Amino acid sequence: MPDISTKPYLLRAIYEWCTDSGYTPYLAVKVDAATTVPMEYVKKGEIILNISYGATSGLKMDNDAITFRARFNGVSRELYIPVQNVLAIYANENGQGMAFDVSTTAADMAPPPAPPIEPASAPAPSLAAVPGKTNGVTAEVSHLPDDNDEPPKKGGRPTLTRIK
Predict the structure, then answer these.
(1) Long-range own/partner contacts, residues 52-59 (CB < 8 A, 24 or more apart)
(2) Cα 163 vs. chain centroid, distance in angstroms?
(3) According to the UniProt record, where is the region Disordered (predicted)?
C-alpha cells in the first residue's frame, strides 16, 4: 500500500487554525503547467493567495488539489492548485504557519510520453520470472538509493526547522 502524504492534512489543519483564531490564511504556491492561477499575478514562478472565507468561493481542499473561485481585479477566476505545489500556508497577520519543500511539482510528475509502437514484425518482449521459481530465470530486485535495511535511529526529539 503506498504511503499517504501528510501534506494535505497539515494544510487543512493550519487553515482551520487560522480561521478559528481570526487570522487570514495565505498560500504560497509554486506555479507550473499543472497549476491554474491568474498568470499576471505570478512573480518568479510563485504566487501568494488569500484563501480566507471572504476571499474565496467554493473552497475545496482535497488530498490531491485545492480548488476555489476568487476575484482578481473584479473578475471571478477558477483556481486549481495541486497540493504538491504548495510551498507554505500561514497566517498573514503574524506569519505563523508551515512551509514545505517543493522539489518536484505536479507538472514534473506527469506521466512520460508513451514509447512509439513497434511494427508487428518485431519479436515479442521476453518476460522475467519471479525470483524463487524453478524455471532457471531470475529477476534482480533493484534498491532505491534511499532504501536501506537499517532500522530508524532511536532517541532524540524530532525537530522542525523553519527556513526563510
Answers:
(1) 52/18, 52/19, 52/24, 52/25, 53/19, 55/24
(2) 19
(3) 106-164
For residue 125, give the C-alpha cell: 518482449
pLDDT per residue over 135-157, tens digit each? 443 333 333 444 444 554 555 55
Which grid coordinates are listed for 16?
482551520
In angstroms, rounded to a whole number, what is the distance separating the alpha carbons of residues 48 and 30? 9
Largest CA distance in the chain: 70
The CB-side HSE value for 41 (13 A sphere, CA atoms) comes to 15
Global pTM? 0.64
Domain 7-99 has CATH 2.30.30.90: no
- State how far the Cα of 25 lies from the Cα of 163, in Å rounded to an integer: 19
Cα–Cα distance measured from residue 19 to residue 52, given in angstroms and rounded to the nearest whole number: 7
DSSP state of 41: G
Q: Structural domain boundaries of the chain?
A: 7-99
